[in-house]
Design brief:
The chain has ten helices and 16 strands. With about 350 residues, the chain is α+β, with helices and mostly antiparallel strands. It has three domains: about 1-20 and about 255-335, no CATH class; about 25-115, no CATH class; about 120-250, Rossmann fold. Strands 6, 7, 8, 9, 10 and 11 form a six-stranded mixed beta sheet that branches. A five-stranded mixed beta sheet has the order 13-14-12-16-15. A three-stranded antiparallel beta sheet has the order 2-4-3, with helices on one face. A hairpin with a 2-residue loop joins strand 9 (about 200-210) and strand 10. The chain is globular, with a radius of gyration of 23 Å. The relative contact order is 0.16.
Length: about 350
């Protein structure tokens, strides 16, 4: 009886994915596009659609945009609504896109998809300008224009590509601990140990004097003071774009293939548990449909059709905070639901 009752609430689901550590990019299908005034709406709509395609495909290649347009649709066909918003005294066109239509079009055209869960790249950027003591770039403080050069690149790419590019935030205890460290201590290890991320990037920018600067660590380059701001932003932009391309490429789901998998979730002791666990699954972009097969002894079993292969689904589940894989084989995955 309970089983039949639940079946009435089951519908075909399009589901969104998780990765490695990752975090969910909540507004994946909402783009905030800078706009000068209302006369520029059409331009901003076109730009927002392009960025939506870049974000969902994990690629900044314009070929996917033209593939979609050449299929007989317009950019506006994918838009649910748009409005002008004021954020931090700047005007943005907020464009909300139709998730289901976009995904179906991507599937139709065999364009790979990257889901809600996006990698976290953590940047430890040490700056030694020579005018103040060396310090690490932080989200809560800017000491000079160099800081803003780094931050503007991270903010722009994070927003446009849908990826978490993070720098530390220091409280009073952190600052005191860092200031008391000696040559036997590792500030970078102390800072990085306080955060979770998929990849750590270490960079140091040093003023060598005589109008010369040097970048060491994961980026290596020499710069002159004359063109420091532009050269620094260009070098950093190129690097961040490259690492973003790599991390998102690893997450792409092959929409040309599907596989059926049995998924059993234990720990379902109430209807609320069923709804909550199903909602967790509904954030996975890798699943094109889900069908309930049984509910017995607090275990609910689904037949799930997954885009790509079974590893796509395993990777998604492994990185969800509420769903834990207890066992799996070539055709079945057992999961424990934790409230």
């Amino acid at each position: 009886m309970h089983n039949n009752f639940i079946k009435h609430f089951i519908v075909g689901l399009i589901i969104f994915s998780n990765f490695s550590f990752g975090k969910e990019f909540d507004e994946l299908f909402t783009i905030y596009e800078p706009i000068e005034n209302s006369s520029k709406i059409e331009k901003s709509i076109n730009s927002s659609f392009n960025n939506m395609v870049y974000r969902l495909s994990g690629s900044d290649s314009p070929s996917n945009i033209w593939k979609i347009i050449n299929s007989g649709v317009t950019r506006k066909d994918f838009i649910i609504s748009y409005s002008i918003k004021n954020i931090d005294d700047l005007s943005y066109l907020q464009v909300i896109f139709n998730q289901d239509f976009l995904i179906s079009k991507f599937n139709e055209l065999s364009i790979p998809i990257v889901g809600y869960s996006r990698p976290v790249i953590f940047f430890l950027i040490e700056i030694d300008s020579g005018s103040v003591s060396p310090y690490f770039l932080s989200a809560d403080q800017s000491k000079n224009k160099i800081d803003n050069s780094f931050k503007s690149v991270l903010k722009s790419i994070s927003k446009n590509r849908g990826i978490f590019l993070e720098i530390p935030v220091f409280d009073l205890q952190d600052r005191q601990t860092l200031s008391n460290m000696n040559i036997l201590s590792s500030p970078s290890e102390y800072i990085s140990s306080k955060y979770e991320f998929d990849e750590l990037v270490k960079i140091k920018l040093t003023n060598l004097g005589l109008d010369n600067w040097q970048i060491t660590g994961d980026i290596k380059s020499s710069l002159s003071s004359e063109n420091l701001k532009n050269d620094l932003e260009n070098i950093f932009l190129e690097y961040v774009q490259s690492i973003t391309d790599k991390k998102l490429n690893d997450l792409k789901i092959n929409t040309n293939r599907t596989v059926d998998t049995l998924v059993s979730i234990s720990g379902i002791s109430s209807y609320k548990d069923y709804i909550d666990s199903r909602d967790r699954l509904s954030k996975f972009i890798g699943i094109s449909s889900i069908e309930i097969l049984s509910l017995k002894n607090n275990i609910i079993t689904y037949k799930i059709k997954t885009l790509g292969d079974m590893n796509t689904l395993i990777n998604e589940i492994q990185n969800n905070s509420f769903l834990y894989i207890t066992d799996s084989d070539s055709s079945k995955i057992n999961i424990e639901y934790k409230k």
